[in-house]
Amino acid sequence: MAENPVIQVNQLSSGYENEVILEDVSLEIYANEVVAILGTSGCGKTTLLKNLIGLLPPFEGSVSLFGQNLTQLDEDEYYQLMRKTGVLFQHGALLNSISIYDNVAIPLEQHTKIPPFLADQLIYLKLQMVGLQKYANFLPSQISGGMRKRAALARSIILDPHILFADEPGAGLDPVTANNLDNLLLSLKQKLSMSMVIVTHEVASIKRIADRIVYLDNGNVLFTGSLQQAMQSDIKQIHNFFESAS
Amino acid sequence: MQIETIYLPASLTVMHSRELLSKAESIIKLREKPAQINLDFSDVTVMDSAGALSVHHIQHQCAAKNIDCRLHNLSTEIEHSLKLFKIGDADSFEAPHKLGFFERLGHLSYEVYISIKDAIILMANISYFTFTAFFKPKLRRRGEVINQGVQIGVNALPIIALIAFLIGFILALQSAAQLRQFGANIYVADLVAIAMFSEMGPLITAIMVAGRTSSAIAAEVATMTVSEEIDALKVMGIDAIPYVIIPKLYAITISLPILATFANVVGIIGGMVIGVTYLDLEVLPFFNEVISVIRYKEIFIYLLKSVVFAFLITFTGAFHGFRVKGGAEGVGRSTTSAVVLAIFLVIVADSIIGLLFYFEG
Ligand SMILES: Nc1ncnc2c1ncn2[C@@H]1O[C@H](COP(=O)(O)OP(=O)(O)O)[C@@H](O)[C@H]1O
Ligand SMILES: [Mg+2]
Asked: What DSSP string describes A102-138?
């Protein structure tokens, strides 16, 4: 592809304290594409995601978002960058002590100075997009798991991010709700023209939404390519991965 | 006819919407308002959802003021975004509105009413099960009274000993100089004994236990409530009050008088240290004086107080535990509220009992 990648990962190795989890990972993600990061549980998907959003520093190599190297940013520049990204955490990460409305309002209050009525409308619009406009005043504990995920999604897209990261969006949801969530992600991607990086290990979900697949195995990128290519791949692990789901 | 044209900036995003809105506002609010406003999009390259909503808002305002609002030079992309980011029937949306004074007063009164009702029901329940569960041990969790007795009573001994000693010591120290002036050295024993028995002993014990135990009860019950354990007990045919609360009540009721007695003794020893080292008293006369001044009334009062405090401490823990709202963070709130309320109630009850018996002679 000719255009500049939105995310560029160069020979990244990273991990926790003295444990190396990712080794020599390189990948690129372009505007408007949906990339699924796959792999078995514990292979380092969440660790990679944390590196991509700057929550975990690399041991070696570099991660660039929108052409800016994450390790070379000061705090201000980092927050500027985060304004253009949305993150949907594995368990939603809504603040439990405040309402859905207030949760969705957090990024607005942090990053912008828009007048209150416009904030109201914007929050309403985003809650409407995820179908939760009636639940603005509920506490996270008063709605179901799938609704919490959607509320968290509304919060992550409140500033119209250019890229959305989602860590196992369908985990812990029933197939119907997970399916709806995938469709919601796709339609939001269309509306907001975002790139999306989705960590998942659910084959059904991958088939629905992914343009491209990055397969992690033991901290290495074993494969990148389209779903078609992945399904026909004769790499043993990938074959097994898709076999075991069908 | 007057026509105003607003040239929209290149990027119409959440970061720039404020200026645009205030600009439009100032034009719409003019005394001689224009008959038509043109929004010129020729410079606009980026527009996000906040930008689109701002444009809709301006159109809305114009319509309300009978101003003709027209959009010019829209690219298809912008037009598309404007269509996409449009809020539907806004009446189903309840943005949280700030409550007025009377609304808040109403909410508060209702809260207070509900709280008092809950409190009375819980008190009645606890009182009822205090007796029935005594004769029907099956209602209680097995081995729990002793278990709790150890946790509530025995584990609190060191801290209560330390504090009681310090209080007896300080009481004696503060009064020693005055008593010495009058040659009334021996009365330091009376003073420390009376102060410890009828006030300080039971009170500081209760405050320590309130801090340690009502918070523990609230945390346990609240955790059980938010994690649906109370519901689970209910469907297994177990009432949570005799099962969880009553054993704790027994344990506190037994341990509080014992702890208070212990605190009294240690406090008097604290006073004695001053008496012996500073006021040249002998140990034996000091204790004789202590025993001569303590009447049955003092003993009765501090035992009565201990029992009342035990009930209050258990009650506040249970009350805030069962009232928990929300998830894990609600547990923290319950715990804090329980400690504050328990200490408050203990001091109020202490004053009431003190007053009653003061006038009684
Ligand atoms: N905070 C942490 N500290 C130390 N090790 C961790 C931490 N989080 C994850 N790990 C380890 O890193 C490895 C990869 O974890 P993770 O990236 O969460 O896997 P997954 O692919 O399931 O998301 C696992 O072996 C895990 O034990
Ligand atoms: Mg994970």
From this structure: HHHHHHHHHH----HHHHHHHHHHHHHHTT-GGGTT-
